[in-house]
Amino acid sequence: MPPNDFPVDTRARIETLRETIREHDYRYYVLDQPEVSDAEYDALMRELQQLEAEHPELASVDSPTQRVGGAPREGFVKAQHPSSMLSLDNAFSEQELRDFDRRVRERAEVDAVDYVGELKLDGISMSVQFTDGVMQRALTRGDGSTGEDITENARTIRSLPLSLNEKAGAELDWSGTLEVRGEVVLNRRSFEKLNADRMRESQPTFANPRNAAAGSLRVLDPKITASRRLDYFAYALLRDGRPVMERHWATLNALEASGFKVNPNRLRCSGIEPLIEFAASWPEKRDSLAYEIDGLVVKVDSTAVQAKLASTARAPRWAIAYKWAAEQAETVVEDIDVQVGRTGAITPRALLKPVQVGGVTVSRATLHNEDEIARLGLQIGDTVLVERSGDVIPKVLRVVTQGKDRRPFMILENCPVCGTHLVREEGEAIRRCVNANCPARLKESILHFASRRAMNIDGLGEALVEQFVDKGLVDSLAGLYRLQQEQLESLERVGKKSAENLLRNIAASRSRTVARLIYGLGIRFVGERTAQVLAQSHGSIDELGEATLDELREVDDVGPRVAQAVLDFFDAPKNQQLLAELREAGLTFREDQPLKAEPLETALAGKTFVLTGTLPGLTRDEAGALIEQAGGKLAGSVSNKTDYLVAGDKAGSKLDKARALGLAILDEAGLRELLGTAAATG
Ligand code: IVH
After folding, report:
1. Is the CB of 562 under 6 A from ligand 1?
2. Cα(465)–Cα(452) distance, integer angstroms
């Protein structure tokens, strides 16, 4: 720091410091590429603060020192927007986007239109006025024509430039008064941290990043705003309420070059079709963004065409918000049937009047078990709210209205497939068919045996297995290896070629590893990882079959339940018979090579789980065992290190805490999906 008694040009030094700090802010907050250490940055800031304190006559509103937030205010002053901040019309399907495009072309009387697609950031819109490149005033949207003056709070947003004069590469002329519009957002991380802090201080938490951003922007104390790490993404530039540039795309690039943060996920194209493709790619990618988005905004690129199209009182005709179809929908439960899983678990299932949910047609939803039906108060004929997210099996959230001719689901006493009396074990919510020869169980067992991570028999799908079992061609897993070409060709939709292929694939599965075979046998609680561990520790099916309970329990990662289940499996005469037949069929029972674990592909590997509440179809122990077998870890309490909270009924404080931390929360269906098992295979 230059000594004060030295005749330095203080004004020049202050200007240099401001410029240097601005540049560092830009690199850090906009580009995310810091060039100096925190210590170096702090030293510059301290020097500037000191000089400004000593020379109040040199103070400036666009100095970086102004970003820390001044004194609290009494309230916000209202101010008129130079031109209305309109809303956007929505499109909820690809068809509605095409309709938008058609309307645009008709009204603008052009054959093809250039469009720009941007992400629709889920935050709060803010208009910022600059005069001769210096930030003057920031307003909330308010009712669209009048907003609240939140200038002091906006100053604390580090990615919002406070002065723009000398940015190289900007083709914009910032002289006079210009208005930038954009979105204030809080990234997920900052949101989680904020809520965690608030929870620690027993303050109410925010429901989502959007509410947190809104709350942070509209507090009277700018120091609070400063502490919240808000971000600003610019998406429009106006002079006297009109676009400055001829193309929206050029505006975005110019804003970026001027030092604003502009969302990089944008596309310019001719015609609407490329945007439909762009839009379709986002639902699965959106969770990987640091920010939440609630759709896409499609805008006409040419501002001349925009002007021609103009606006309604509510929204411009040249732009539209595209929202992905809702993940929830209402429909009628037409019937309830049950599925019989591989282990005999009986899962009731709602048969729905087909409905579009999240872009797919849903006609079935899991009901988990009888208790769940009681909890929902559900009867056949009721209208329900159904939800699906990602690939998770759709589920019924609640009854919306009771049907006029509703009738209760009759609890089953006997297996609907083989008629065996169903058993409900103590502490279990699920009834099971205990008939090991039940055709329904056999079908599920075959599908599991043939699945990709087990014996990987390509082409052996549900429709075929159904026919194998129903026509009596296959009565056990070993029966697969006795199938003949003519038998296959006699089946529906099986030609010579596909029969040959299937037989070849079945034959090839004979040489699968011992670990895959153990997994494919479907021993209770033995997931892919446990199967690998068992194959490694015992080397062959025979040695595994001879292991005692104690020997099994000595194996790393094998708990008492798993050990008992393995023992029970090998003890059952039926399974002895099965193994003899599989050996006869030439399957690999002993590994020639020393075994190496195949890397687990599961989504659970290395992830930490916490269990809470009562799950409909699994006890806490069972869920824990399944998670561990798939490579997941269990923890007792929720923290920042938790990856997933598995929450059932009556989940209490752990659920609240997980929500506050923004952790992934799974119900049983979600867990099963992650585990790669269907709900019915229990
Ligand atoms: S353009 C007249 N672009 O969505 C055009 N808006 O539902 C108005 N939003 O109030 C806005 N990201 O807060 C535009 N890339 C984006 C946006 C965006 C988020 C918000 C904005 C607006 C709301 C309209």
Report:
1. no
2. 15
DSSP reduced 3-state for 139: strand
With b meaning 16 or more CB within 10 Å and e meaning fewer, what string describes 406-430? eeebeeeeebebbebebeeeeebbb
Query: Which single residue is written with the structure tokens 């003890």?
Result: 571
Structurally, the chain folds into a number of domains equal to 5
For the ranges 224-228, 379-383, 550-554, 613-617, the one whose mean pLDDT is highest: 379-383
Find the helix or strand (DSSP H, E) in which 666 lies: strand 664-666
Distance of alpha carbon 114 from alpha carbon 116, whole angstroms: 7
If asked whether residues 317 and 337 sit together in one domain, one would say no
Tell me, yes or no, whether 453 lies in a domain.
yes
Is residue 641 annotated as part of the catalytic site, yes or no?
A: no
115 and 170 in one domain? yes
Residue with tokens 């940055």: 41
Better-predicted residue by pLDDT, 645 or 619: 645
**Are 300 and 332 in the same domain?**
no
pLDDT band at residue 83 under the 50/70/90 scheme: very high
The reply to whether 245 and 313 lie within a common domain is yes
Report which protein residue has its CA nearest ligand 1's atom 6. Answer: 120
- Testing ligand 1's pocket by substitution, the residue of 235, 251, 252, 261 carrying the most ligand atoms inside 8 A of its CB is 235
Write down the pLDDT at residue 602.
67
CATH number where 354 lies: 2.40.50.140
Residues 193 and 107 in one domain: yes
Q: CA 298, CA 276: separation in Å to the nearest integer?
A: 10
> pLDDT-based confidence at 169, cuts 50/70/90?
low
Question: Do residues 116 and 258 both lie within one domain?
Answer: yes
The span from the CA of 626 to the CA of 493, in Å, is 37
